[in-house]
């Protein structure tokens, strides 16, 4: 028995790559800052635990933190934690406020403005501590 039905032409598969929307980048940055903050906390717990194991080793580890490279890492940490916290508030508003999805883009620009305003004095203080020898 033969069949006279033809197979439907195979449709070309289109790739759906979500490109360039600020909401996507805020999502990616939120995940990155969350993971980076987690790893910082993990290292912080480990180096603080050294004080009970060997106080001299703890003192040497803390002394290595007093250089400009670590100061820049500290600045990055403050920037990440601040962004993660502000964006987390925005995500909660989008999820739990009935008008949140409507205003999510505006809220993103507001939290970025707040982040920038708070980071200026924060960066100033960190740079002061880095170069004033404190």
Short structural summary:
The protein is mainly alpha-helical and 134 residues long. Helices cover 77% and strands 0% of the residues.
Beta strands, count: 0
The dominant shape is elongated
Poorly predicted sequence stretches spanning 5 or more consecutive residues: none
Count of DSSP-assigned helices? 4
Q: What is the N-to-C order of secondary-structure elements (H for helix, E for strand)? A: HHHH
N- and C-termini, Cα separation: 90 Å
The overall pLDDT, averaged over residues, is 87
Proportion of beta-strand residues: under 5%
How would you explain this protein's 3D organization?
- The chain is mainly alpha-helical and 134 residues long.
- It is 77% helix and 0% strand.
- It is built from four helices and no strands.
- It has helices at residues 22-53, 55-64, 68-96, 100-131.
- Helix 1 (22-53) packs across helix 3 (68-96) and helix 3 runs antiparallel to helix 4.
- It is elongated, with a radius of gyration of 24 Å.
- The termini are far apart.
- The model has no long low-confidence stretch (mean pLDDT 87).
Summary tags:
single chain, 134 residues, mainly alpha, 4 helices
Please give the structural blueprint:
Blueprint: H1 22-53, H2 55-64, H3 68-96, H4 100-131
Helix pairs in contact: 1-2, 1-3, 3-4
């Amino acid at each position: 028995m033969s069949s006279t039905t033809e197979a439907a032409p195979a449709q070309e598969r289109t790739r759906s790559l979500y490109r360039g929307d600020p909401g996507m980048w805020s999502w990616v940055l939120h995940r990155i800052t969350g993971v980076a903050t987690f790893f910082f906390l993990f290292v912080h717990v480990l180096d603080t635990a050294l004080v009970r194991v060997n106080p001299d080793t703890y003192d040497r580890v803390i002394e290595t933190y007093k250089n400009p490279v670590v100061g820049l890492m500290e600045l990055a940490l403050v920037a990440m934690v601040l962004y993660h916290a502000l964006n987390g508030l925005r995500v909660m508003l989008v999820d739990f406020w009935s008008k949140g999805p409507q205003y999510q883009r505006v809220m993103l620009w507001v939290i970025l403005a707040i982040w920038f305003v708070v980071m200026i004095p924060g960066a100033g203080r960190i740079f002061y501590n880095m170069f004033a020898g404190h």
